Amino acid sequence: MTNDILYSFRRCPYAIRARWALLICEINIEIREIDLKNKPLDFLNKSKTKTVPILIKKNSEVIEESLEIILWALSESKKKNIKVMYFPDNKKEDILEIINENDNEFKYHLDRFKYSTRYQTSNEEFHFTKAIQVIKRWNQLLAENKYFFGDNPTIADWSIWPFVRQFKIACESQKRTNYLEPPIKNWLDSFEKDRKFKSLMYKYALWEPNCRKNYFPSN
């Protein structure tokens, strides 16, 4: 294997945050965009979780969790002091705590709000309210700082903004208003309006065995 390989799905927030880390860390990889409703056999054979993203390292080692891919990207980056910049030791516990809050509490309510028809016992309004409660807690942090833990982003910001973006998209599709207050709205805008966003969300053709290789970033 000549390149590290990322199996991805363009709109998946877990895959988005992994790709964002790769972009910031300036890691170039082969990317394989897959259809989650028709997962290729090669992907299924390599993944225990059967979910994206997964990273196949050059030595064939498999990394299955998006957060682990982020930490791998930090460790592989040639940019000076990048790990200290985005995962400072003095904020490590706080960073992991807020990521855990996103990946468990917020994601739980986001799914049941956005995809309420998939959950027979789901109360859409209840889960919307619970998601808003989490966002309000985050808003308190962002009212004091540009990012969660100061004037510079950490992997907490990288890990969470794709999910807040998904929440925004769900609210827009339901014609809801006033779902994001200015601090967190401005914070989300800083990522969506970043010049790297176009590369992040580039639309690759679906991967198939023996097809032409695609690389990330695309330019």
Provide a concise account of the structure shown.
By secondary structure, this protein is α+β, with helices and mostly antiparallel strands.
The main β sheet shows up as: 5 strands, mixed
Compute the CA-based radius of gyration. Answer: 18 Å
Shape type: globular
Strand percentage lies at 5-15%
* SS class: alpha+beta
Q: Taking strands numbered 1, 2, ... along the chain, how are they ordered across the largest sheet?
A: 4-3-1-2-5
What ranges have pLDDT less than 50 throughout 5 or more consecutive residues?
Answer: none
Map the helices and strands.
Blueprint lengths: L4 E4 L4 H12 L4 E5 L7 H6 L7 E3 L5 E2 L2 H11 L5 H5 L5 H23 L9 H21 L10 H19 L8 H11 L4 H4 L13 E3 L3
Parallel strand pairs: 1-2
Antiparallel strand pairs: 1-3, 2-5, 3-4
Helix pairs in contact: 1-3, 1-7, 5-6, 5-7
